[in-house]
Amino acid sequence: MTPSPADRPLGPYLRVEGLVRAFDGVPAVREVSFAVGPGEIHALCGHNGAGKSTVVKLLSGQLTPDSGRIVIGGQEVGFRDRQAAQRAGVALVDQELSVVPALTVLDNMLLGDIHVPFVNRRRTAAAECRRVLDDMGLGRIAPDQPLSALSLGERQLVEIAKALSQKARLVILDEPTATLGDVETEHVFAAIRRVAGMGCSVIFVSHRLTEVLGLCDTVTVLRDGRSVATTLAKDLTVDELIVQMLGAAPRRLSAERASGQADARALRIEHLNVPGRLTDFTLTAQAGRVHALAGQLGGGASDVLRALAGLHPRATGVVTLHGRPIPFRDPVRAAREGIAFVSNDRKSEGLFLGTSVARNLVATRLPALARAGVMVPRRERRAARSLAERSRLPPHRLDERVTALSGGNQQKVFVGRCLDDGRVHALLLDEPTRGVDVGGRAEIHRLLRQAADRDLVVVFASTELDELLELGDVIVTMRDGRIVSRYEGDIDEARLLRDMTHGALEP
Amino acid sequence: MRTRNGSVGAAESPVTRDSGDAAGRDQRPGSPGDRYLGIGLAVALLALAVLAVTTHRFLSLDNARAILASAAFVGIAAIGATPVMIAGSAVSLATSQTATVVAMLFLATQQLGLWTALLIAVAAGVALTGAQGAIIGFWGSNPIVLTIAAGFAIGGAATWFSGGTPVNPAARGFDVLNSAPLGLPLAVYVLLVTTAVAQWSLRRTTAGRQMYLIGENRAAARAAGLPVGRVTVLAWAFFGACVSLTGVFLAAFNTSATVTLGGTLTLDAIAAVLVGGTAIAGGRGSAVRTLGGALLIAAISDVLLLRGYSTGAQILVKGLLVLVVVIAVHVRTTRGQR
Known about the structure:
A: six-stranded mixed beta sheet
């Protein structure tokens, strides 16, 4: 990549004006405008649902805006796909790595690059790859190394190098450090600074606010789909940034919730560890209360739930539910001991999409609806009806295919499946309202509250502040696989966000 | 050729259905694509029927009997393969080797009496196949790779065990298996009973219902705590029992067993299940469909035979038939699901 600041007039390289984008009538981005100059590192901040990922997708050609303009290098652009964006010099380094571990560094760089001719000279390509790696200060990585030999952080660096080798003038980094340790993060930052030093514009999306202020020149804050402020990073503190993200004064929520009595009925988790993901997690979750695990992507909240459900092959620790031990690595026994798990991925790890609503509702308790292994249709029908009623699903739609329902109703089927009081004692939910509309979300929250009122243990993980504050009686904040703090009753929104984003303790 | 039109029309509908998950929008099943597919298949079947009835001697009782008889051996194994495929562990590539070993065991133990020999043979088939099911169900091994390996091992054992020479029985108690009560071979009755048992078990028992769920979405079944391993073993054990029955009938029919006795049983059984329309990715299908598939293949082979075509032509048509059904049914279902 050859920087040529001379042949371009000064001023912003990227200008975004009045960007709007809705999904099925629900606006995700209402009005976003900002500008990024050449060589500038520009942060996009905002808590979940603020519209960051939609903006990233609009800029990288994965979505088209409903209205508004994207101006790159003085020309208005309208990308129809990622290739078109790539041709205009926009490269995206995704949240999930798009590199292929089995291939070499060089092959990964060539992969998906529109500039690579069908017949290409390997030696030239290898030399070019070497040059890009050197430019980034990655002398220690060789082009012919298989990617699987590199650490996660190094793979991330290869991703960035790949963006550079594609002659990018604008590099968008979407949560590049979510799963990295401190040292690796520092390497990634060094690489980003070099990239910017070569005249490239960089957009950096992250939840980690200290990182944002340490790395970036400018910060644009998004709130409810609008860009609310663009500030120089050196003029900001983390607390000021949080105030911008939350809008007005942070809410302080009082303890008007039922305070459950401490008794023996509880899910006790002691020294739960998952190598590389979760460190020494200890919590006693009383029956009858809703427990919220608050953390950002990669914070470990999700791993707690998966380990308890028997889905983490390397989990260790001691877990008892109402005094009975729950074994690890065995989802069948976890379910038998009364643990019901709602995964954050309804489509691939939740519902049986080709099957009816009724059959989805009773899927986990067929043995209870059978006599000597033979299904009793009358019992099955009754069970499906009562679960539908409890989870507020329209009873006349029981025989429809579950995919015929809206996202909100599908999620109610998923949660409703677990509201089987005879068998379920602890309800574990990972992002219980992901991809659910506002109405469905309120109903699911009510279902969970009612489940707690019926003396179930309810534990959920979420990245959304509103959800955590609305629903959690006890909130446990997590970051980098560790507990930061535990709150009960009086909870300060700003403090919660600070715990989740940069892990500082008492001010 | 109408089937092709049908499948093209069908391929378009799942795309819209797939997006049913997008927030807020409700969609209903039963798209026009499904209708085209139904019409296409009906026309194809009608064309085959016309071809069949205009074939000399096709519509005779003797010929119907011949079709049933020729469908029976493969059919029994195919019925067994149905739950395995529904439960999402694809197919076994060791079917003919297993049938061969069982046939050898059956003939070699004839001196112990028919029933003892039968019991030993079926037990061996269930154990061999069930063990593969355990490795697939509990350890998540790839069924294709595993059954290729198992096929070599079992076939090798059969060769070693028989020393490469035919296994001949010491007694002829097995002759009863070649009988034909009421004019139909015993194997046909066994096929019908097996179909009925499999159909009922899949629809009405907890294990059968769990097979559909596991085949439909294995990750979801696991996360929900369904007994994925146990149910998979059960499906494979049932498959083993069915393959054993086929092996026993093959042994009785041939009165001796060589290492090539199983022949093309492996692929014939898979073809019957697929032509019946059971999804190779799992989650849908039924035993009755497989019975239909087996009968359809047998009927078509029969028509070609009566019209004087060679075995090669019969195999070619069988291949084309599987291809058409796979395109028409399976492309549609897999697109609709994922």
